[in-house]
Design brief:
Elements lengths: L2 E16 L4 E17 L3 E5 L6 H9 L6 E6 L2 E2 L3 H7 L1 H4 E4 L3 H4 L6 H12 L4 H14 L16 H13 L5 E5 L7 H18 L2 E6 L2 H7 L2 E6 L2 E7 H6 L4 H8 L9 H18 L2 E3 L5 E3 L13 H6 L11
Parallel strand pairs: 3-8, 3-9, 6-7, 7-8
Antiparallel strand pairs: 1-2, 1-4, 4-5, 9-10, 11-12
Bound molecules: adenosine-5'-triphosphate (ATP).
Protein name: Peptide ABC transporter ATP-binding protein
GO molecular function: ATP binding; ATP hydrolysis activity
Family: Belongs to the ABC transporter superfamily.
């Protein structure tokens, strides 16, 4: 398989402002030099806890977040520049599925308009052709034609996510960034939506960047996986590497957090989880590089990253500007 996307040494820093003049007093190094490739037709998992920089990476790939440095190549073209994205019609080829279909679908619009929106931006279809295409998309995602005239609130969570998926595939994209696509759904519906995403992937040869904090969900979806912590990738590998032979302590900790369904080994699992939590507790103030080498976070440099969570930033009353100032 060829590489569709090549992300190289990507850095995204957010300014932290404070003091009397509201000057930049520090930087949140949300993404701090990560590299990975996504092949055509594969599902690439980006895993980490809240605040590790996953969504910032996703937004940068979608062109929604200005990057500080590094490159994001799509079929060999660097799409960090707006002019390149425009000339390649990049936003036609790269779409997204959001975490919460409740808030990502406009409640005032009917399903027909919601799904047709990306089509209107890129394709010049007649009203009739557009309706036929939306009906075809509803059929693909397993919704009845009368959904066309309904509003999002008239559907269940799983059905709303199907509408979100129909909108995402409307333009026949090559890549879909799926940011926690099932974490807002009931467990029983999660498997349905995941299987459904797989089906669509096979039919349309789509690549997914699958962002999640949940290694249990990712196991069903991903071919290759990167584990993210404090803006860096601490471990990268195939699904087998990560699940069968994890190297990094942080990966082991995430794996240990998956509840064991195997009743016989549940006690063993619980003990192993406690053991790993203890090691992690003792060592959490360290950043570990890919070789497992530890760097004390406090000693990196006074202005070096301390990736503060959003609510902490709010508590400190500092701004959380989306864009890095040049
Ligand atoms: N607009 C912003 N301004 C300042 N800091 C930000 C901004 N957006 C995110 N951050 C910070 O960047 C870091 C990474 O955030 P990001 O949302 O990318 O992480 P995440 O792994 O996707 O977490 P979550 O799953 O909670 O969204 C966090 O410390 C966060 O507080």
């Amino acid at each position: 398989m060829d590489d569709l996307m090549q992300i190289k040494d990507l850095k995204v820093y957010y300014p932290v402002r404070g003091g009397f003049w509201n000057r930049i007093v520090d930087w949140v190094k949300a993404v701090d030099g990560i590299s990975f490739n996504i092949k055509a037709g594969e599902t690439y998992g980006l895993i980490g806890e809240s605040g590790s920089g996953k969504s910032t990476t996703g937004k940068s790939i979608l062109g929604l977040q200005k990057v500080t440095s590094g490159s994001i190549k799509y079929n060999g073209h660097d799409v960090t520049k707006k002019s390149v994205r425009r000339s390649l019609k990049y936003n036609h080829d790269v779409q997204m599925i959001f975490q919460d279909p409740q808030s990502s679908l406009n409640p005032e619009k009917r399903v027909e308009e919601i799904i047709a929106e990306p089509l209107r931006n890129f394709e010049h279809l007649s009203k009739h052709q557009e309706k036929l295409r939306v009906l075809q998309l509803l059929d693909i995602v397993g919704l009845d034609p009368d959904a066309l005239y309904k509003y999002p609130f008239q559907f269940s969570g799983g059905q709303r996510q199907r509408i979100g998926i129909a909108r995402a595939v409307a333009t026949n994209p090559k890549l879909i960034v799926a940011d926690e696509p099932v974490s807002a759904l009931d467990l029983s519906v999660q498997a349905q939506v995941l299987n459904f995403m797989k089906k669509i992937q096979r039919e349309f040869n789509i690549s997914y960047l699958f962002i999640s904090h949940d290694l249990g969900v990712v196991r069903h979806m991903c071919d290759n996986i990167a584990i993210m912590n404090h803006g860096r990738l601490v471990e990268v590998g195939t699904k087998e590497d990560i699940y069968k032979h994890p190297v990094h302590i942080y990966t082991k900790r995430l794996l240990a957090a998956i509840p064991s369904i195997d009743v016989e080994h549940r006690e063993e699992h619980r003990a192993e989880r406690k053991r790993i939590e203890k090691i992690y507790q003792d060592k959490k103030d360290f950043y570990y590089d890919q070789n497992g080498k530890a760097f004390p976070l406090t000693k990196i440099s006074p202005t070096h990253f301390v990736a503060l969570p959003k609510d902490k930033l709010r508590q400190l009353n500092v701004s959380t500007d989306e864009e890095v100032e040049s």
